[in-house]
Sequence to fold (406 residues):
Amino acid sequence: MSPDSLSLAVIATALAVGVAAAVVAWRVWRSRRDFGSEAERASYTILHAASQAGRSLRGGLDPDGAARAARHLRSMIGAPALALTDESRLLAWDGAGPAHAATAMALAAATLGHGRTRVASGDELDCAAAGCRERECPVRSAVVAPVRAGSRVIGTVIALSPAAGAGLVRATGELADWVATQAELAELDRSRTLLMEAEVRALRAQISPHFIYNSLNAIASYILTDPARARELVVEFADFTRYSFRRHGDFTTLAEELRSIDRYLLLERARFGERLQVSLRIAPEVLGTVIPFLSLQPLVENAVRHGLEAREGVGHIEITAEDTPNEAIVRIEDDGAGMDPERVREVLAGRAGGDHVGLRNVDARLRQVYGDDHGLVVETAPGEGTLIELRIPKSQPQHEVRPPLD
Fold:
């Protein structure tokens, strides 16, 4: 290779290295610019850790959730080790000195008893006594802070470090308060689930006496005159009650709910005959939409009982389900007796008793599950019939439709 060629090769290599270095430097600069200042990056790190820990504690203070959350909680206060306990056991240990985990409940005992933050050191964290063989073990002192649920101490957060300064004491106390908030939210979720289950039981209780009595009477009327029809109605009645009184799952699909409504209306038509006319317009795209269990049937029953029974002649019920980009919009309309709008407001606000518990119940459950923007919309007036609209989000990854336990 000639000297000139060698020089060109050296120059080309230098240029390539320079371009590569420039690209790397630009990417680093760009990432730093996009990510913000050091303070912003630190804030993001803390918030991200809090988010991950909160997700892990969604089920409350239990071993699985605590084990997943401990690493994120430790990173939030920068301690070498961190432990979580409930009232009677160690839930999780993360970080250095795992041999000291056996002493966690002894460290937590006083705080569980008197409910005050304390600092432990010395003999309580002796490595030899704990069987810890780590060189330069950082577990020399501990800050034990109570996790409270109201006036009761339900657990502790223990931050372990070489020395417990005032900053670590304050940080551990704040972290324990944050864990308590997550535990309270988990308890609120459990209470909401129990409330929904109680409301479904109330709906079942409402269905059973009125509808079952009328259905059995209608079936009995066919036994002598049309035995085949009576057998068909018995099967439909059994399928309807099996669905309505199933023991598992808070959610179902729109298709399943409509199938149950079809059985209900078949039984009601056996009683009303040609007086009850029903039409359905259902967009196929919404049939798989997840909805709260027994959220449509009570509204259809309301249309029959309070709309059509109270009027003379033929009554019409129209059920429609419309597909929109984000929601399934379901409407149930009857041309029956209608209601005073002020009475409807009292029913939905829970200020009126009587036979409209189903209307109030469905509205309350929709608001609990999807928020106040998704409560029932009711348009009615005396003698003008009733239109009820539900707007159900189509995307609900957090709601699982599970098969019933028959």
Remarks:
- Residues 147 and 155 are 5 Å apart (CA to CA).
- The mean pLDDT is 79.
- Residues 223-393 form a domain with the Heat Shock Protein 90 fold (CATH 3.30.565.10).
